[in-house]
Model the fold of this input.
Amino acid sequence: MKKIISSLAALALASAFASADDIKLSFYNKLYEEDAILIHSDEADETTKDFPGIKERMQAEVTSEKVDALVKATVTLDDYDEKHFGLQGEVNDWYVEFRPIDKIALGMHTGIFADGSTLPIYDDNVNAANIGSDGFTVSVFPIENLRFAVTAPFSFDGSPEGVNWIDGNKNEIVGEDEDGNPIREDENFNIGFGAIYDHELFQIGASVQDVADSDQRQIGAYINLPKLFGKVEPLTIGAGFAHSEAVRAVVGDADLISVGPIESCVSYKDLLSAYATFETEKVTVAAEMAYNLGCDDETFYDFYSAASVSFGIVENLTATATGKILVDLKDKDETQKNITMGAFALDYDLNENNTVGAEFDIAMRDKDWAIAVPVYWKYHF
Done:
């Protein structure tokens, strides 16, 4: 409820500070399902069926001269205990940014990513490139095209675990004493900072997260080359490096490949990531990768790569073929098998505001596999 109230308040604030002439509103309503419907376990020697949750998602974003805001929320109908159906809601994302003067922006729950961290097929960014946070961010613009941000991360769910302690409050539980009482350790105030410089021919960005915490600190540096310095109009490439002091950092939300129970991600101490897109009027080709240089975590993988091609079949009808792979390069015994995924999608624009689509996804890990058949209808403007 608190997230919903915060999200609605963000949109209300945006409308209040913006005049009717400068408001720009974008919106979509999406009815869809995307979960696995068939799952095969080689160990159990069985193939099971599952009801894919039916989801209703709405996203509204307001931009203006002074205030920008967004709220995205989803309602899901599913058989959560495999017997009984129920409804569940989630606020997937929200933010509000207020610019009281031209040189300063104040943001809540604002993700500000360097373009070079983009993973276009996964449709997200590498976390280390964020110079904002889920908490409060102050951005300044000292010169044209340069943004410098300082952020204090914390949660908006009201939980003690999400507090960013200013006075070093003993909040983190690190163990128990002989009587079973929790042992707590002083926490430093969590702060991050970074900068993004956006030139016509390139963009560079750098960030440092958890500056005062040597066990959680993360550093990222990224470069993006739109139109390859203006020499190749359809081509854009980006790349970056991230270093994490955390025990384990992961790319995205641990679901670079995810079809039913067959899902995982790349964990890292040092990470190389890159992407490329080539877009023409009829064809779009994209590729992305993430490579762990220094983490021996046995739970996740070391190398991820994906490629996709989209092409117009006839007017308003687009087909997209996608392939992905996750490889554990440091598993000497090969107990953690590679994960591969293939997908084929069709999207049809009914008119300017309505699009429908269907997709076939299959993911495999050794002799285990899962199949999903996502379908959707989307109204947008």
